[in-house]
Write a structure and sequence with these properties.
The protein has 524 residues and is mostly helical. It has 25 helices and no strands. The chain folds into 2 domains: 410 residues, Sodium/glucose cotransporter, CATH 1.20.1730.10; 104 residues, no CATH class. 73% of the residues lie in helices and 0% in strands. Helix 3 packs across helix 17 and helix 20 packs antiparallel against helix 21. The two termini are 37 Å apart.
């Protein structure tokens, strides 16, 4: 299916690219220090933090995948989107003040302060490898495939290279501030384009929810799936999804870095909560359009063609260009975030500790070179993914191996004041080995349990390992307990309770209520 872009469509896309370039140039002139490059000068406000959290998480495959799944198999995969608000609420309550009080630049640094260097190195290495080989390269490849769906003449390796170069250059020179400002623009484009598309489709079914529901197969609008379901069995909703979400939203450098760059705790918290509210939107502008398309565009066999079909048939000239700009935005916002976070990890966690007299200018130089090198690696690896389809699926499942022990170190480690460095290290080793064993058994057909359930099982066992092994060694020092574990005062730190709408806890409660309402409505 080939698209013929009108002149106004091309103009809109060119305007988008021009704005990104101008933002990158403007920010790069002000990027001079380590904090500027990696944390936006620790000056980010809540609006750009929230918009950037939303945009960096939404990829082109998210847009196409959610719409296609809602058309072909139901809305269950939307759970990963709107339930994100729960780990973000936990982050606002506990982890935002813990991180910002610690004055860290990377999340693995927090593990070094709470436990020791071993935990920091382990987590940092895993994060860098998965960010570049899975997140960045995967985002480039998937984005190129999506664009090729619209424009078949595109060459995959050339497209991935152009996308990587474009994102890499403004990220290397503008740093985190360029990332969050461009992400904010991209978020607005994504949301606006999605709203317009949803309205046009809703109009086509005469604004009738009954028509939409009646056209879908039974159970299409339910997130309750049997235990043997390959997409998301119901136990995975409670065991795996919240835990994987906690890792992603509260401990993943790729996401949390813009929170670390916040002006203060108050802005960080409000930004996190804004991100939580924004994550409710994909259900309505990405999932619902796929469901509405069932009664409008019948007989689409390939789910990945649902979104292109909707765009090409429903949108007038000009809006097609806007939607394509939105797709490109989704690609860029994911790639720039992973490049910036990975270069930060390399410099702060590995280069900086090795060079005692390193200057701020040297750190900026190493950061930019790291970004370019990682950009090249991702751009070279991305086209190769097409030859490793089966392996690529395995790599995605590997998250269920590495995530559980990391979740335990953060989620249990900040509450268990007897948890110590040796317990953390043994948990990382033994928990990861357990995850690998389960993964191998899965591939041999011996262990046929969904990865979300496996994640919950490994977290439970890793928790037991952490608690028991920590008791075999001396407890951490008092200053570690006071500064890097949960204290009740953290929840109210820098919270304005003078007027109800300035109290972040009230808005956290409202967000939680929205999530519960959606859950109850769809769990049927």
């Amino acid at each position: 299916m080939e698209i013929s872009l009108s002149s106004i469509d091309v103009l809109i896309i060119l305007i988008y690219f021009s704005l990104i370039i101008l933002i990158g140039i403007w920010i790069s002139r002000k990027t001079k220090s380590e904090d500027d490059l990696f944390l936006g000068g620790r000056s980010l406000t809540w609006g750009v933090i929230g918009l950037s959290l939303f945009a960096s998480n939404i990829s082109s495959t998210t847009i196409v995948g959610l719409t296609g799944a809602a058309y072909s198999s139901g809305i269950v995969q939307s759970v990963y989107e709107w339930i994100s608000g729960i780990p973000l609420i936990i982050a606002a309550l506990i982890f935002v003040p813990l991180y910002l009080n610690s004055k860290i630049t990377t999340i693995p640094e927090f593990l070094a302060k709470r436990f020791d260097r071993r935990a920091q190195v382990f987590f940092s290495v895993i994060t860098i490898i998965t960010s570049i080989l899975i997140e960045t390269a995967g985002g480039l490849y998937a984005g190129a495939i999506v664009l090729k769906t619209f424009i078949p003449n595109l060459v995959i390796w050339q497209t991935t290279l152009v996308l990587a170069l474009f994102a890499g250059i403004y990220t290397a020179y503008g740093g985190l501030k360029a990332v969050v400002y461009t992400d904010s623009l991209q978020a607005v484009i994504l949301i606006f384009g999605g709203i317009v598309l949803t309205y046009i489709l809703f109009e086509k079914i005469d604004f009738s929810l009954e028509t939409m529901i009646a056209s879908a197969p039974e159970g299409h609008f339910s997130i309750y799936k049997p235990i043997d379901d390959k997409t998301l069995p119901w136990p995975g909703l409670f065991l795996g999804v919240p835990l994987l979400g906690f890792w992603y939203w509260s401990t993943n450098q790729y996401i949390v870095q813009r929170v670390l760059g916040a002006k203060d705790i108050k802005n960080a918290r409000w930004g996190v909560l804004l991100g939580g509210f924004l994550k409710l939107i994909p259900l309505f502008i990405m999932v619902i359009p796929g469901a509405m398309a069932i009664s409008i565009y019948t007989g689409i066999e390939n789910p990945d063609m649902v979104y292109p079909t909707i765009v090409l048939n429903a949108l007038p000239k000009g809006l097609v260009g806007l939607v394509l700009a939105g797709l490109i935005s989704a690609i860029m916002s994911s790639v720039d975030s992973t490049l910036n976070s990975s270069s930060t990890l390399i410099v702060v966690d590995f280069i900086k500790p090795k060079i005692s007299n390193i200057t701020s200018n040297d750190i900026v130089k190493y950061g930019r070179w790291s970004t370019f090198i990682l950009m090249i690696i991702a751009a070279v690896w991305a086209p190769m993914i097409q030859y490793f389809g089966g392996i690529w699926v395995y790599l995605q499942q590997m998250y269920a191996i590495f995530v559980p022990p990391i979740v335990v170190l953060f989620l249990i480690g900040v509450f268990d004041k007897k948890g110590n460095a040796n317990g953390a290290y043994l948990t990382l080793i033994l928990g990861t080995i357990l995850g690998i064993i389960i993964f191998i058994l899965q591939q041999l057909g011996i262990w046929n349990i969904h990865f979300t359930i496996n994640a919950g099982i490994v977290v439970a066992i890793s928790t037991i390992i952490f608690i028991l092994t920590s008791r075999m060694f001396a407890p951490p020092k008092i200053e570690i307990i006071e500064n890097f574990t949960f204290q009740r005062r953290l929840i109210n730190q820098d919270n304005d309770t003078s007027i109800w709408y300035k109290n972040y806890k009230i808005w956290a409660g409202i967000l939680f209520i929205f999530i519960v309402i959606i859950f109850i409505t769809l769990f049927k």
